Each structure stands twice: as structure tokens, then as C-alpha cells.
Design the sequence.
DNA sequence: ATGCATTGAATGCAAGTGCATTTAATTCCG
DNA sequence: CGGAATTAAATGCACTTGCATTCAATGCAT
């Protein structure tokens, strides 16, 4: 590994990544849009849902979410605000650091995620399966 | 090939793509920004430069460019307008279809591309080498 | 040739994003 | 304890983007 690839290989790899990324993201956005979600929105819901046990559900800080979905802190702040407006997540105070904000799924958010997840997975299967080795 | 991967593999692959894409694009933007270019701008310059012979240089239609860099037609129209304002490309009429627009590099555009290309390649090498197999 | 559908590009508009800044809470050092 | 430096999140702002629409040129059918 780490093979000092020649330039044209690097360029081709990068173009492949750009193409795959663009096609998949576009398709995801198209499919999810009918559920009122963008790809980033789902990504956040997915992160929030994956660590959640039925009763409580995991709570993440804004910064934690930001780094997980590769968005800036400000973008995530607004994204969470939008999700909250749609009643998909709720923001709560951190008891141990009152600057921080705990973001967690609402029941509606969990339901929406469960509803949309198979669709998202099917898009990934369609776009990725066989395309990356 | 085309192996019907299990769900968690698909999800992990997609997350890897998102991470690699975000990190690389962000780094490219950071480095190129000091030359007054965004990553998309360079991509367009790169497409225009690659087919160019010294005397003429290749001319592409807006739509052709759009599909090559995975942007919408409207985004590309504006992007070309910005590049033209900076005198990096020029728009000309298509003789055979007067709706179409021929976009080609100016001397300044060619110079800018040549100036920035090694930097872009080095970023690709840094981010991609050893990361994708 | 005339009119209608189609195609290429430009533009109005709304939405999402990042950077820089602001506001609030915490930490560190004197 | 008190004040400066730091950290978390929210906000102002400018920019890029995509969708829908518009405008111009072409192609097709009558």
C-alpha cells in the first residue's frame, strides 16, 4: 500500500470519486426529497438513530454531529434547527456543560428515519454495488 | 463482481466515500482559494486544458462541461461567467448551432491552470495515495 | 413556408454552506 | 475570588448551487 501512484492514476481516481459521489448524492437527494429530507438531513438522523436504544436514544453534541457528517459547525446548527422545526429532533441542555446542546431524535424523527432507511439503503445498493470492488 | 454486499458494508463504503470526498475537496478548496479559484473552477480549467493543443486549445459547449464536472447547466453557466469576468476563459459563438456557446481558455487561463496544476496534483497525492488501494 | 415541439444557454429565486463574528458558559492563572 | 483566554453554539453575510422559467435558435410536420 501507499504506492506513489503516477499522476494520471491519481487524477482518474479522483474523477471516479467525484463521479460516484455526485451520482449517488444526487440520487439520494432526489429520492429523499419526497420525504422532506435532504441527504445531509438523513445522514444526521442516521447517526442519531444508530446509537439509540429504544427507551432513551443517543444524544449527540452539535460538534460531534458536525464532524460525523462532514459539515461545518454553523451548517449543522442550522440543519438541526430545521430538523427541530419539523419536530424530528429536539435540542436540550447539557447538564455538565451548559454551553453544549444535546441533540436527540424525537419519536417522529425515529419513525421518519425507520421509514426512509430502506429507501436510502436501496439507493446505496443500486449505486455502489459492483462499482467499488 | 457485483456481489450483493451486505448492508453494513454498503453503509461503510458510502461513509468512506463521503469522508474522503469531503476531506479532499475541502483541502483542494483551501489551497486553490489563494489563487482565486474554487475546486469546481479548477475542474473546468482542467477539462479545458487537457484537450488543448498549444495553438488552438479545445473548445467545449456549456452542457459538455456541465456533465464532465457534475454540475447543473445553470451552475456551469454562472461559473463560466465568473471565469470570463476574470479573463480566464472566453465565450464564443458556435458557427454550426448559434444557440450553443463555445468556451475556451484564454492565455491567462492557460497560464493560471499551469500555475495551479502541480499544487492540485500534490493535494491529490497527499489525500489519495494509499487511501484507496 | 408556417407553426409547434425541442434544445442550448441565461436568469429569477430560494435554499444550503462556510467564514467570520457574536454571545454565553467554562477553564485557567494570578 | 477575579479577569483573561478558551470553547460551544448561534447568527450575519456572501457565495454557490439547483429548479423552474425564459429567451433564442433549430428541427420537424403539415
Sequence:
Amino acid at each position: 500500500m501507499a504506492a506513489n501512484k503516477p499522476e494520471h492514476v491519481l487524477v482518474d481516481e479522483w474523477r471516479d470519486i467525484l463521479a460516484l459521489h455526485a451520482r449517488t448524492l444526487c440520487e439520494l437527494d432526489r429520492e429523499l426529497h419526497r420525504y422532506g429530507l435532504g441527504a445531509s438531513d438523513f445522514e444526521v438522523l442516521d447517526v442519531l438513530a444508530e446509537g439509540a436504544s429504544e427507551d432513551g436514544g443517543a444524544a449527540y453534541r452539535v460538534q460531534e454531529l458536525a464532524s460525523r457528517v462532514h459539515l461545518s459547525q454553523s451548517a449543522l446548527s442550522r440543519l438541526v434547527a430545521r430538523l427541530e422545526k419539523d419536530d424530528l429532533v429536539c435540542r436540550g441542555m447539557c447538564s455538565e456543560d451548559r454551553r453544549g446542546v444535546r441533540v436527540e431524535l424525537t419519536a417522529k424523527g425515529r419513525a421518519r428515519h425507520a421509514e426512509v432507511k430502506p429507501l436510502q439503503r436501496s439507493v446505496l445498493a443500486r449505486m455502489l454495488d459492483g462499482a467499488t470492488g
